[in-house]
Task: inverse folding
């Protein structure tokens, strides 16, 4: 502990949201200011947000980070305030953000991005994207992880499932859909949820994305994990690496300079692009251009290896479809019918589709550059966005005078971190990097600000029997 | 004074937590000092200090981002680490083929520069959701002799 910091110099800190970004921010701030009061608010009874409700239950190694955070809450001065909604208006929340800012020297918003991004956007309308039977990945992973807001009512996967998206969340869903019901129950998934996701069970899963394997967003390690599942036949419509040699060798040179994946129009338009300018600017980013090129090749190799190593006679089939953009979903004859068009070719891809198998499927890969698939259920895993009804919308709290999103600054003493700050990109470790950066900015700002630590903190909130008396209490105590 | 420097390379913070536990088991500052591979100055390697390296694995068997600055600095400067003695504990997840590989990258580099590895290579497998801390403490009590 820095002995020069007198207790009165220590700021009181409120963090809204107890997911990884909020907890890491608390961890870094506590390292600097041991003994300071840090209160982490969450609208739910239990902490840890996406670690609890987003990480797949068969990845306990990833979930183990919560044990680190358990320790955080054991430390003096650090408190979890669950079942406490922080809203913009008094009617919405247990406390308003203004009340929090009056009570604490530093307030950090770490509320994440809750809503599933829709297939349809104002710029690219996809009719049918809200039909029954189309489920967002966030909703499904919350359901699978027992989130109190989700209900299994109306959720039922059939024999034919389409997953749209090629990120790690899409692969999590794919893997869980292929897992035997008894194993899912062993993972602690509720019985009615297991029945809903294994209804059918899925025998034909198409996993469709706009990128080619090189530029898809999944981690190769996640793909290799799929290879351990027995009784699955994997097929890919991307040309295998040996046929795509000319393209991929051009990639490895070009992506080292001007035509890296971040420059391709497809990727630039995607809000959950892992190679965004923000991430590229991160000092800890391991994805230097050279690494990116080799990671791209590794990704294609992983697809090829998965396909080559799978059982050609298995009765359940997973088809990876690369380079397709959704056009429309219609419903007739008790099925959903998806139409995709070929994604425009990018410098990273030849946009071509290798020959698919010729056996009977409920899909046609037309020579006219469209793909049609019939399905019983559609899962979209194309990223997350702010919920229109979120209790706190970031844009409503940006002060023109102070706003500096690169440092996480929203207003005087008000900050944002993690997905709320930089968008729905990156895994738990990347949000740790983000939390460290924002924590360092908070520390620098607070050190420059005089007088230090003047606001009373949690006691004043706890003493307020109702929020109408809160402002008087705050005035009294400060 | 002889010290033990516990160098950690982390991605999610678990290796740092392990390093902190090992340091307090040894009696804490100034006898045992925790150092992040992100900030560690390679000029500070001292033969009279003992080193414990705690390093996780990232993604596809890569170094965790927190270990990269030290790795890059060593790669660049190629200093002689003759006389440096270290023990190493790797974190990983056996669900992946590249289990614990991140620590092996650092281990190989330290040895190639002349440092000497002492004791059994410690490892923890997180695939069952367990924390590495207890395994690491047990490992340290068994193999590590402070300088």
Result:
């Amino acid at each position: 502990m820095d002995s020069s910091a007198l207790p009165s110099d220590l700021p009181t800190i409120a963090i809204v949201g107890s997911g990884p970004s909020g907890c890491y921010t608390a961890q870094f701030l506590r390292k600097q200011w041991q003994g300071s009061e840090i209160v982490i608010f969450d609208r739910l009874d239990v902490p840890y947000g996406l670690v609890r409700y987003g990480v797949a239950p068969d990845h306990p190694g990833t979930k183990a980070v919560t044990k680190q955070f358990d320790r955080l809450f054991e430390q003096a001065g650090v408190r979890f305030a669950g079942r406490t909604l922080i809203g913009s208006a008094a009617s919405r929340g247990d406390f308003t953000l203004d009340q929090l800012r009056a009570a604490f020297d530093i307030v950090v918003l770490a509320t994440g991005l809750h809503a599933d991004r829709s297939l349809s956007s104002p710029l690219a309308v996809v009719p049918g994207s809200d039909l029954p039977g189309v489920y967002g990945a966030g909703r499904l992973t919350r359901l699978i992880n027992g989130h109190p807001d989700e209900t299994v009512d109306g959720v039922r996967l059939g024999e034919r499932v389409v997953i749209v998206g090629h990120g790690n969340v899409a692969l999590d869903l794919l893997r869980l859909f292929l897992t035997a019901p008894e194993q899912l129950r062993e993972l602690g998934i509720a019985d009615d949820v297991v029945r809903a996701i294994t209804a059918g069970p899925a025998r034909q899963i198409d996993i469709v994305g706009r990128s080619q394997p090189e530029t898809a967003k999944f981690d190769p390690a996640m793909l290799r994990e799929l290879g351990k599942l027995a009784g699955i036949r994997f097929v890919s419509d991307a040309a295998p690496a040996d046929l795509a040699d000319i393209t991929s060798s051009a990639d490895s040179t070009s992506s080292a300079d001007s035509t890296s994946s971040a420059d391709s129009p497809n990727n630039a338009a995607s809000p959950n692009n892992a190679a965004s300018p923000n991430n590229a600017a991160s000092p800890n980013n391991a994805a230097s251009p050279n690494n990116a090129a080799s990671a791209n090749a590794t990704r294609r190799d992983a697809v090829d290896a998965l396909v080559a190593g799978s059982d050609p006679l298995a009765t359940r089939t997973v088809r990876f479809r690369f380079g397709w953009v959704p056009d429309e979903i219609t419903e007739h004859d008790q099925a959903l019918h998806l139409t995709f068009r070929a994604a425009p070719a990018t410098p990273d891809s030849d946009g071509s589709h290798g020959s698919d198998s010729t056996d009977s499927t409920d899909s046609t890969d037309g020579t006219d550059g469209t793909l049609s698939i019939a399905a019983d259920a559609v899962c979209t895993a194309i990223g997350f966005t702010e919920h229109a009804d979120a209790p706190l919308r970031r844009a409503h709290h940006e002060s023109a005078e102070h706003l500096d999103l690169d440092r996480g600054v929203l207003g005087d003493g008000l900050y944002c971190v993690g997905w709320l700050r930089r968008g729905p990109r990156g895994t738990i470790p990347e949000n740790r990097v983000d939390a460290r950066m924002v924590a360092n900015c908070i520390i620098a700002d607070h050190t420059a600000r005089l007088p230090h630590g003047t606001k009373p903190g949690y006691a004043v909130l706890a003493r307020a029997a109702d929020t109408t008396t809160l402002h008087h209490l705050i005035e009294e105590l400060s | 004074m002889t010290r033990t420097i516990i160098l950690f390379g982390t991605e999610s913070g678990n290796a740092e937590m392990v390093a902190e536990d090992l340091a307090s088991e040894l009696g804490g500052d100034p006898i045992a000092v925790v150092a992040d591979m992100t900030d560690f100055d390679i000029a500070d390697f001292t033969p009279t200090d003992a080193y414990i390296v705690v390093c996780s694995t990232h993604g596809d068997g890569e170094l965790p981002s927190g270990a990269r600055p030290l790795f890059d600095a060593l790669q660049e400067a190629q200093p002689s680490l003759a006389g440096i003695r270290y023990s190493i504990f790797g974190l990983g997840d056996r669900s992946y083929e590249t289990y614990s590989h991140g620590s092996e990258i650092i281990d190989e580099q330290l040895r190639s520069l002349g440092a000497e590895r002492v004791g059994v290579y410690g490892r923890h497998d997180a695939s069952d959701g367990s924390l590495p801390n207890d395994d690491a403490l047990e490992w340290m009590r068994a193999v590590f002799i402070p300088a």
